[in-house]
Amino acid sequence: FAKPAESFEPELAAAITKLDERTQTTGTIAASQDADPICNCQDYGAVSHSIDSVVIDETKAKAVVTFTNFGKAEKRTIDLVTTAEGWRIFDIDGSYRKAVFDDLKQP
Q1: What are all long-range contacts of 23-30, with beta carbons under 8 Å and residues at least 24 apart?
Q2: Which residues lie closer than 8 Å to 64 by C-beta, 6 or more apart?
Q3: CB neighbours (10 Å) of residue 12?
Q4: Distance separating the N- and C-terminal Cα atoms of the chain
Q5: Distance of CA 16 to CAs 24, 45, 48, 68, 70, Å?
Q6: Which of 38, 41, 73, 88 supports an S-S bond with 9, CB 3.0-4.6 Å?
Q7: Could you give the strand order of the β-sheet that contains 72-83, starting from the edge strand earlier in sequence?
Q8: In angstroms, rounded to a whole number, what is the distance separating the alpha carbons of residues 74 and 35?
Q9: Segments of the chain assigned E as strands
């Protein structure tokens, strides 16, 4: 992501930015950053999506989205939170956030 803060909540955006900076310095891509985390794809064809469901309360939301890339459909669960800038991604599939912070712990 060129601008993580446009999509992810501040703490996760900062962590993604640190991993990107590490990649620029070392040339090594962290496991959590090896594919686009939203569509879970490295190569892009005509990526499309459909929103299957959304559940919203005052400060958080959960969206189930189906992404199709190169004819392969994949469901993703995206957890969002409200921030001063609006809705931002908190986690993807209940595991992306942990993967990012685990990668930050690596040397």
Answers
A1: 30/100, 30/103, 30/106
A2: 51, 52, 53, 54, 75, 76, 77, 78
A3: 23
A4: 22
A5: 12, 24, 24, 24, 27
A6: 88
A7: 48-56, 60-69, 72-83, 86-92
A8: 14
A9: 48-56, 60-69, 72-83, 86-92
CA distance 104 to 18: 8
For 85, the token pair is 């800038």
pTM for this one?
0.91
CB 87 within 8 A of CB 81: yes
Cβ atoms 18, 89 nearer than 8 A: no
Q: Which residue has 């809705």 as its token pair?
A: 87
What does DSSP assign to residue 1?
A: -
Place of tokens 């992501």: 1
